[in-house]
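Consider the following assembly input.
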Amino acid sequence: MLKYIINRLLLLIPTLIGVVTLVFFMIALAPGDPARVMLGERASKEKIERLREDLGLDKPLIQQYGLYMQRVAHLDFGKSIKSGQKVMNEIKERFPATIELAICAMIFATILGILIGVISATKKNTWVDFSAMVGALFGVSMPVFWLALVMIMVFSVGLNLFPTGGRINIRYYFSPETNFYLLDTFKYIFTGHPEYFTSALHHLILPSIALGTIPLAIIARTTRSSMLEVLKQDYIKTVRSAGIKESRVIYRYALRNALLPVITVIGLQFGLLLSGAILTETIFAWPGIGKWLYQAIEARDYPAVQGGIIIISTCFVLINLVVDILYSIVNPKIRLQ
Amino acid sequence: MKKIEKLVALLVVAILSVLSFSCQKESETVVNKDSDSKFGGVLVFARSGDSVGLDPGRETDGESFYGSTPVYDTLVEFVPGETSIQPALAKSWEFASDGLSVKFFLREGVKFHDGTPLNADAVVYSFERQFVKDHPAYSFGPWKYWGYMDMDNIVESVTAIDDLTVEFKLKKKEAPFIANLAMDFAAIISPTAAEKYGADLATNPVGTGPFKFVSWIKDDSIVYERNPDFWGGDVYLDRLIIKVIPDATSRWLALQKGEVDVIDFPSPEDLADMKSTDGIKVIQQEGLNVGYLALNNEKAPYDNKLVRQAMNYAIDRNEIVAGVYGEAGKPAKNPLPPTMWSYNDDIVAYEYNPEKAKELLAEAGYADGFKTEIWAMPVARPYNPNGKKVAEIMQAQLAKVGIEVEIISYEWGTYLDKTDQGEHQAAMLGWTGDNGDPDNFLWVLLSEMAAEKPAGNIAFWKNSEFTELCAKAKEEMDPAKRTQLYREAQVIFHEEAPWVPIAHSIVSEPMKESVQDFVLYPTGRRVFTKVWLKK
């Protein structure tokens, strides 16, 4: 087992070097002179040249790449062109918001997705199954920004049940410490301000549902087909013939094995959420990394874009690693292959 | 199954309890008991992006200035809602007879938020850090706007004459220089704070302004509180919160729900809806910008004045504004925006008159029309939200007088490079003013000097009479005389028609009815100094 994990960890290094190289050249070779784009119509020749020097764009590309690789090895992504702040600090300030949202969205998608998938499988070809799967199809094909806006119109402006966006009631003057608001506000429950915590939770619900809809649908479909596969197996017939209660057969014997492929899907979806959070964060004014990265791309803020993509890719790779390891624990056959 | 059911029940209960707990209204504000008073309340202003930093000397984007404006003052400032200048931290100023130095006399008794007194040394520090290379704070730059406004070629030195008098020595006579000092980059910072925070002054701003900085959560919100010692009289709001809501529709929904009080950059298509919503009002003003089609005077047929005039008659600005700008634009007739002092409103715009255009073309020797390229901007700008669409409308209009148009576009950086070099026959572009001075439009965009490649004058129109008027106005310190010179320059522009002026944008600021005395500034500032909330 340990050997397997070490092997997988060693594989990480070339993967990440590949990611960094790809990101660097993709951005460096994009058309247009970033200095020119940044200065727009107010630029004079001197101003552009001055900015190119400031950004190190006047050096040969290979030299730029070499310097960049050296810095990244020390986890230094340089300074954001736009803000002059260290890219790493900018990411640290915003990443917790995205992680918090992604985890909540994933909890929502996993619990509901598995439940719907199981019910669909056990009621195969009934109206229940049919409507669940049509719902899942809608979930996958719905544009997130449209769904998010409709949710705000209906649930916050129309029914007045939820806030329209943000992370906590803006008039609370609450200052975060860890930037995970649920953790930061938790201690206030005991100091006479439980409304801080509930407000943070309240603000999480709509964006979590919006962000979790696509993974919910995918998890439901995967669970259903995997469940149907398992229910056909001989051992289930054996268990059933032993007179065990049907619900126990499904949740105790069948679901365990059916969940194996679902774990992989959950891992993949979680990684995708990190990068897919841009639209949700934009609509719900959620100050996370997705929105920040999008703005960095718009502003041609090279160091920020590179740093952001590398961090997100690294998370993606790490989540996959964790999933694979979990998988190999529940299914030892994998390691042997 | 039981476990699952329990889990679901638990979740439902949890969600319901959060809902019931959170039924406090987000829009409630704690206000002063005395309901007749202007004092009290919290105003939330929602805008589309976060500030990059809060040091106005370093930053260049409007969102950053939104964040620094409440904290800082300048020596002189714009009259609310106008482009003219009035005293601020300087009570008065006086030019030397040769126009090569100017003394500013500071207000007494002004203090920075950290208690440091405002004096001549603080003013010197605020400017020297931006251009004196061995100044201890110089390395915290780049001081971009100092460069953009060409201050290196204007300012020789800044010195303290006594505790409350500062002298600027100038390298040349430059009347618009006073207007530059009303811009954000010319903010006066607390030297004590600058030394304490170093580069981190950008996240801990300390000025003399109407609001003190409290906190900043990146990409989320910046909080300020009233400065009770503000030199400019009462500040009514207890707190000001500038909140980021990136999506325009989300901003509008948040205003509808009452979570925010004022919103920036509404979608033009929502404006009619906003105006008809109870409890919402929309304040509007022409932006300090102009979108135009520059006709390259170095290339036939645009080297012929008659053809340029014909283009002006053949293009229907009203149709373009209605079709592309909607609520967000107003047809243009001059190179200056209407909110600019010295705007010449006596000039009669070229009417839409295809017959007249054909006559002029025939007179110029193009009775059968001609073929031309029109370059369309690839990006949206306030002065031109959709260059391609504008070009298509022009194409259809010009076809009626026999001019066959091919539309060309490039990636934005390339587009700017090529137009600077004069590779186009006719190209769309525009300009947003910085300092509220006519020179910042007329000299930069239309003088002979600006026609040197890479050019700001992409019509490559070289008119010595026009340039001379603008050069005189640069050296004239009397605003009334300058106004006269600029009005004459606009008459020449109109007659010579180097551009087809298209439109000025209209800035709209939707807000709750309860927000009082909010004034839009042509220079794009958002100022809350005298704003109060009706209880």
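Residues 194-231 of chain A form the longest helix (38 residues). Ask yourself how this observation constrains the way the partners meet.
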